[in-house]
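INTERNAL TRANSFER SHEET
From: sequence group
To: structure group
Subject: Leucine-rich repeat-containing protein 74B-like isoform X2

Please process the attached sequence and return the structure record in the designated field. Keep the field labels unchanged so the import script can parse them.
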Amino acid sequence: MQSNASKPAFISTGKEVQIGSKAATLYLSSSSLKLHDKRCSSRESSGAGLPHGTGSVSQSPVQSDIDRDSLVKPGTAPGRSTAYSRRSLEDDKNLSQDLSRLQPIREFTFTGYDIMADKTPEPPEPEEEIQPRKRLQAYLDSCSHLGITPVTYLSKQMSNKGIVMRNHSIGPVGARALAIALLSNDSITSLDLEDDGIEAEGAIAIAEMLEINQNITDVNISENCIGTKGLRAISKLMANNSVIQSLDMSGSNLVDNDAHFLADILKNNSTLKELILSHNGISEQGGYILATAIANNDTLRILDLSWNHLRGKGSLAIAASLQKNIGLRKLDVAWNGFAKNDAIVLGKSIKENTTLKELDISHNRLEKEALGFLMQGVKDSDGLEILRLGGNCITPDLAMVILTCIGQSETCRINLLDFGSNEVDENFLTLLDDLQSTKTLNVVYGQVIKRDNARDRKGDGIDGNLDATYELYKYMNEHNYRVIDLMKWLDKDGSMSVSREEFKRGMITAEVPLTEHQLDVMLDKLDTDGDGEVDFAELLVGERAFRRQLRRKQEREKAARKERQKLKEIDKIILSSMNDKT
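Return from structure group:
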């Protein structure tokens, strides 16, 4: 039977130690414990300590039930070393007292303490933070490989869901560096490179990237003059791409010969929802080619052909294509050359088409007769909801007719009618109020011409928003009246000053087309000293201001005439070149 003295025992030092982030009581076995208190130090210094080496006390087993009688006196215990036999009885007594203070606890095998076990492990870095850093590094590496300087603004965009990089002139090489960085992208869904000067080579690089990257759905490469070469690469891409839903190629320097590639996009791609082709050079022949593709496409929802040169058989074919198309929801053909015949066909197409919701045909120089044919189809349509007509030849009376046509129709669903900056009159506003009480209809219009029908005098009322003082001097200029003539006619007592009431009576007698309210506003402006009267000097100041305004207006009209003349010459050149091609 093995004695208790041979079993390993573990004791507590009674002290707490700091390990990691936690405090713990240190437990050591008797075989590794080294007494380092003052008493132990004093014994070791006096040479009366316990034997060292293999038989030292630090390596001897100690039990909780030590029997004082079991301590063998020196020289009597068999098998003990001679050091024990020579120890004095007093030393044995001191040792027994020291050991009795050590409170042994449970026995176990000490395997050590893992200092890192108490340290809270850091959470793994989120994937959404890792990917932007990878994309940024890929962009920096590609710039280094191509020998260009990275764009700081673009570097900041790498952590976003979409890259918006407008007007930064990165050029074709910069576009290739970006394309390389986006090859393995799996989170960026939109790419906007408007007016970055990427040209055809940059467009080719972007197209090659999009053939591999199947995550980007919105692409804007407008105002980059990619031309035929760049469009060919985009057309090839779209033939197999099933992800891109919006494509903006406005301002790409496209002409009639490029219409074949655009038609291929509409024929071969069934996922594209929005195609923007504004500010290009597509004219008669290109419009005719596009029309066939539009008629057979039933997936495109938005088509923007504004600011092109559509006219003749091109605009006519596009108007007719709406009779067969069942996919478009919005068509924008503003700032083109639609004419009377186009309006006739467009009216018939709108009547038959039940899916088109918005039509923008503003700034096409449509006149009264053409607008009449268009409105015949609009009033019978049960699909069109938004109609934009601003910038056409619409007078206040014609605006009244168009509004009446919509109001009297039982099938028309127009809820937004946009006249742009075209003027309307007070009768128009009255009719609009009546219509809005029975149906939802919002109308956009320009200035309101107010007419004074309360008095039976010659001349229509002028716009209340205009300067009444200007209108007075304009009236005088048209009738060759001088300021001195006006003052002599108004001033009956020769004081060269007239009261407000005298001035008003004189204006009514002279049949100046101003309302009483406008006369009050004008007198407030003329009476600069606030004495309630208008004198000759104040009238002269007003006349000088009128002359300055009239001169500026004439200069603007002259510049406008020159601009119109230039446009006419450009139209002649375009028509001449088209005739030469045909």
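Handover comment: The first strand starts at residue 10 and ends at 19. The mean pLDDT is 78.
Transfer complete.
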